[in-house]
Amino acid sequence: MRYFKSAIEEPLSYPPGYGTEHKWTKRSIFWDLPYWTTNMIRHNLDVMHIEKNVFDNIFNTVMNIKGKTKDNLNARKDVEIICDRPEIAVSGDRPGSMTKAVYTLDRDQKRKIFEWIKSLRFPDGNTSNLGRCVDLNELKLHGMKSHDCHVFMERLIPQHLEKCCQNLFGMH
């Protein structure tokens, strides 16, 4: 391995025959990741960090956290083109023209969820104290490790969604 140049040493070099003899012409989006250029085994993706990114995106979108939500004007335009969801379609080209999505929570709902997270208790060694990650003043989560996000997605979200679906849709 020491004889091969790393991506940092030759960031813009292409393999021989690039674009003419083979079809590899697209640059992967993984090169935008901060650790990707120094990653020696690029086919070995870190599942826990990917899961943390997915959790952060879903949680920040549902909680409608300013600057971190993925619910923006371009996403709404894509939904309008791809899906039949008139209740979240945009009416203009201004972000102010977006209606509140059904999947986002209001301040009282957020407060209840954050208080629930703060009250959770786990056995020692299972996960960190999630109550320390909760900021009730700003209604945000901070400092969660990838394993905490894994536990949240695998154990807590399904349990909470089951209760929410029963209340919202009358499901048993």
From TrEMBL:
PANTHER family: OS08G0208400 PROTEIN (PTHR10775), TRANSPOSON, EN_SPM-LIKE, TRANSPOSASE-ASSOCIATED DOMAIN PROTEIN-RELATED (PTHR10775:SF182). This is Uncharacterized protein. It comes from Sesamum radiatum (Black benniseed). It comes from the Eukaryota.
